[in-house]
């Protein structure tokens, strides 16, 4: 496989004036078309091809929003519902969105050799290769599960490249012996689909067999690239510890989110305990869209006039799974019907966002 990097040229169509939103109908239409269609690129790295989709404005004057999906999902099923919400159009019009598909996870991907072995940290190297091929000085990372781990590792090794991180259901620890043994037993007694579902959902949700769980089960079991999905699953399970503490943590603002009773709740709480409390938010927002916009605003990239207030009455737990159909779940949903993209529920130690 060639290691030659391909440069993705991103030119700004119309520079934005500071503090002013582009309100013309032509600009709104262009943003919508770009959001719906996207610009697809394949970036070859020494560790595989990264399928990349660009959405939103093509400005390079602001950091790009770089997303990385979880195991069992791709960039489209994980993040498209979120950025199609009306409340997110200020983000779409003012930022470039770069959605990454892990090697072999995009629709129509060719099967990877089963003997191929990739460790999770290698994907972070691939993200670095991608970063060097685009014309952005910095990025804001949004990762879920395995994607959160990968972007966190990227941020620790490339601190000057990352201005902010939104890490959802992150586990920064390598698998211990007990977890390793449990995973080995599970691989013998359970199908790959059921293993991934246990990663995405709580036992309570799996037992209740909700429509959302069923939709994920069908999607994963019938995925044409299931063998590639297994490679990513094995890679994530072979992850190494992320080494950091409050004195040597991330140099950028971080927003941590995790669901109530989520599979990785304890791991996320432990991660929070090692973070710098002055730059870290461990939140239970009622709406992902508003929480995310406030996070962006806190970095000085959105005027306060663009923001709406967070509702005190919306105290519904955010799901730790990413819904494909918009129905509410505790697990990993980015799309939550008409509620503005609720996020995974966070533990009781977290504070609730309100203004």
From TrEMBL:
BP GO terms, sorted: cell differentiation; nervous system development; Wnt signaling pathway
GO cellular component: cytoplasm
Keyword tags: Cytoplasm, Developmental protein, Differentiation, Neurogenesis, Wnt signaling pathway
SUPFAM superfamilies: alpha/beta-Hydrolases
Domain of life: Eukaryota
Family statement: Belongs to the NDRG family.
UniProt protein name: Protein NDRG2
Organism of derivation: Astatotilapia calliptera (Eastern happy)
Source taxonomy: Eukaryota, Metazoa, Chordata, Craniata, Vertebrata
Name of the gene: NDRG2
